[in-house]
Amino acid sequence: LVELRDALRTVKEVEVMLREMFTTASVAATQLHDQFTDLVNKTKFSTLPNEVLAIIFEMACDGDVDASCRLLLVSQRFNQIALGLPSLWSTISSRHSSVERVKLFASRVTTPTMSLNIELLQDDFRDNESATPILRMYKVVPSVSTRLQKLSLGLKEIILPHLSQIVHSFSSLSLPYLFELELESDKRTGF
User: Fold this and answer.
1) Strand 91-93 versus strand 114-118 pairing type
2) What are the angstrom distances between the C-alpha of 35 and each of 38, 47, 92?
3) Which pLDDT value is given to residue 118?
4) Which run of H or of E encompasses 68?
5) For the chain, is the Cβ count within 10 Å smaller at the N or the C terminus?
6) Interatomic CA distance for residues 75 and 182, integer angstroms
7) Residues facing residue 154 across a β-bridge
């Protein structure tokens, strides 16, 4: 009877160890499967031609320059493809970009497919001094004017004291590809 009880205890201990080993093996198998699937997906993804990725990038970004910027950070390959796609950089808005960023994005656009939107919120600029950044943005327009297809300008009350400067900087614009000009103003500008 003692032998039978010891044998039963040993069998139960072995059963517990086998269950633990099975659980560990299951976890390891799941991790290996996930790693294998990840590797297969990366291998398949890496075989996609750059042209296909370019189409995917254009569809995914759809004029969102911030999304285009995020592509630059994924990998060297994504960076190279994204920088080579002028369409990813061709819609530029002053609302989310500094003058330096606008100039950088404009330098990436090699064809006349550029759209530039200059706008500001009245609350963003409360005095004449704070109008400087938006005036600098308006001064960018002549340097890219020959490549513009669309130009949107927001004329807010804060710009009125500087309107003659803007008109002067726009007086020599060459807009050979412009097909859409949008002027927007608030009621206080009187336009």
Assistant:
1) parallel
2) 5, 18, 40
3) 76
4) helix 65-72
5) N
6) 37
7) 184
Give the pLDDT confidence score for residue 120 in this predicted structure: 58
Q: Please report which helix (H) or strand (E) contains residue 177, including its range.
A: none
DSSP characters over 18-34? HHHHHHHHHHHHHHHHH
Q: Give the integer Cα–Cα distance in Å for 117 and 91.
A: 8
Structure tokens at 172: 């020599």
List, run by run, the mean pLDDT of 10-residue segments along the chain (191 residues): 89 94 93 87 82 92 85 91 86 73 80 72 50 72 84 75 79 85 72 56
At 129, list the tokens: 């001094």
pTM exceeds 0.90, yes or no: no
111 token code pair:
């064809």
Question: Of 67, 164, 68, whose CA–CA distance to 108 is shortest?
Answer: 68
For position 122, what pLDDT does the model report? Answer: 47
| SS3 state at 180 | strand
Token couple for 120: 């500001």
Angle, CA of 126, 128 and 132, to the nearest 5°: 100
pLDDT tens digit sequence for 73-110: 988 999 999 988 888 888 877 765 677 878 888 888 77
At 24, which amino acid appears? T
